[in-house]
Design goal:
- The protein is built from five helices and five strands.
- It is of the alpha+beta class.
- The chain has a five-stranded mixed β-sheet with strand order 2-1-5-3-4, sandwiched between helices.
- Helix 2 packs across helix 5.
Length: 158
């Protein structure tokens, strides 16, 4: 039987504790242990961004982080964006602009866009495309995503 490690972290502002093996990814911990299923496994190799979360404010692919590495960190997932039923401007505008289709990439794109806007509240199109380059979408063609981020940024600045 694999050794289990006790990990304490903060997820979406709430203190959490969990047990995980040394080989278990943070994505698996989020989905299987903490029942936060917003982050998706698209590739398992850090190439698609569907599992994007922030750890201590840094955007990462949770499939590339081990659960044991979460000790003492603060993690934010897509589930932590909205305040109950109240969507953030970014989430609301993604819906208004139809910047999603199948939804597999959407949680990761939203987390990445939120991280971008926290660092740069007025990004130009090139910056948005560069920042979101690690998030693959096979449905939208990215134009609606970029427009939604631009519109959300403008609303959030106002």
């Amino acid at each position: 039987m694999a050794k289990k490690y006790h990990v304490s972290a903060t997820v979406n502002g709430d203190p959490v504790e969990f047990l995980c093996s040394g080989q278990e990814t943070m994505l698996d911990v989020l989905r299987d242990r903490l029942e936060l299923t917003g982050a998706k496994e698209g590739c398992g190799s850090g190439d698609c961004g569907a599992c994007s979360v922030t750890v201590d404010g840094r955007l990462i692919c949770s499939c590339l982080m081990l659960g044991v590495e979460a000790e003492g960190t603060s993690i934010e997932t897509v589930e932590g964006m909205a305040d109950g039923d109240q969507l953030t401007p970014l989430q609301r505008i993604f819906l208004e602009e139809e910047a999603l289709q199948c939804g597999i990439c959407t949680p990761g794109v939203l987390v990445a866009a939120k991280a971008l806007l926290a660092k740069n509240p007025d990004p130009d199109e090139t910056t948005i495309r560069y920042w979101l380059a690690g998030n693959l979408c096979r449905c939208t063609g990215y134009d609606k995503i970029v427009r939604a981020v631009q519109k959300a940024a403008a609303e959030m600045r106002a």
